[in-house]
Amino acid sequence: MNILIIGSGGREDALAWKLCQEQNIKKVYICPGNAGMQRLEKAETIPMGGINELINFSLDNHVHLCICGPEAPLTEGLADHFSKAGIAFFGPSAQAARLEGSKIFSKEFMARHNIPTAKFKVAESYEEAIQIIEKWDFEKGIVLKADGLAGGKGVVVTHSQEEAKDTIFDFMKNPDVSIKTSRLLLEDILIGEEVSCFGLCAEENFIFLGSACDHKRVGDGDTGANTGGMGCFRDRKWPDQTLQDKVIEQVLKPTLAGLKSEGTPFTGFLFMGLMIDEGGNPWVIEYNVRMGDPETQTLIPLLVGDLGSALFNMVNGGPSIDLALEDKDSVHVVLTSGGYPSIGKHEMSLGHEIHFVNTDDDKSEVFFAGVRAQGEKLINSGGRVLGVTCVGSSVEDCRKQAYTKMEGIELKDSHYRRDIGERKRGSKS
Ligand code: AMP
Ligand code: GLY
Within 6 Å (CB) of ligand 1, which residues are found? Predict the structure, then answer.
């Protein structure tokens, strides 16, 4: 089987790494991929092109299955185009991808199907948003969310009416702010521990893959700016089976049934961003219609079973294939370029050679993201450069291994957090 993966980051590298190890996979194409993927024998990166070029490439090269890493191509209908061309695609249609593409669609969907989520109101205009704010009980605070995809910049959690009003101005009126929305979501703050849970889905069939907790802030102790993710861990003791069953019964199953009943069945990775309250009950913060980054790099090395065949069969209605995570923990630590996350005109320190010093071992895996080749050298070309995953019998053991490995990787001006996996299981990042 030949597979095409869309994307270029660590998540796509981890997927390619796993698929390249599977016996019945002949070739893994990654578009556009990154230079680090050249280490994978069966992998080949292909340049970015338009949808028609991708489809023609897939037909010419006998691609049996396409998988998409990032959300934007899915909300733009990539799955619909592939399906129309008769190429199996493990990812949702544009209609089903609204679960991530529109925060308001997603909240109203949850309300229609009694899926637990924070209470909310929708403002259709700036004036309406201000009216809602003036009546809001600020003892409990408020979360303001721009409606569309905003690369993680469209959410502000605040406890003050002043800040809420400023944010509404920024999101809806301020010409100097890049986030723009004509509709705003206003919701209660959820309190508890955050966790990302994943389902591999085809209409109402699913495999519950498991969960991981990421660290979103750039600095140790969850300080500093929000990022795409600085690291992640999987603690197999939490969420426990009881909690996982609640996630399946109260979130995953009604989500899939609800989408099907509305005529927009869901195929693909379903990422449930959850808050677990004190009573051990899950509340949906958000859905994503793809795997997480760096959750994928954390979970994939634990995955046992043929991922390629499992996804292919799910899309095509073939027999189900066993996929499960090993009974182990894992930790993934991300190395970033100096200056990441780059905000405004602030520049990152790019173009330096990455040196691997005494990093030979078989217990950890390096996944590549913002890297490019310069002759024989590998240089950093993006914010998140690479990440190290270690698997072991405890989160603590994995942490130790991951940091030993990280110490052997040299990159000028680079940064990584020293406390990945240290925070109390799943608490807010
Ligand atoms: P989102 O883009 O919706 O995932 O929001 C980004 C982050 O904001 C989440 O990972 C949470 O940490 C936080 N957040 C979003 N909504 C809420 C909420 N209702 N209560 C508490 N925190 C939230
Ligand atoms: N790690 C969060 C995300 O992929 O959206």
Answer: 118, 143, 152, 155, 157, 187, 189-190, 194, 273, 285-286, 428
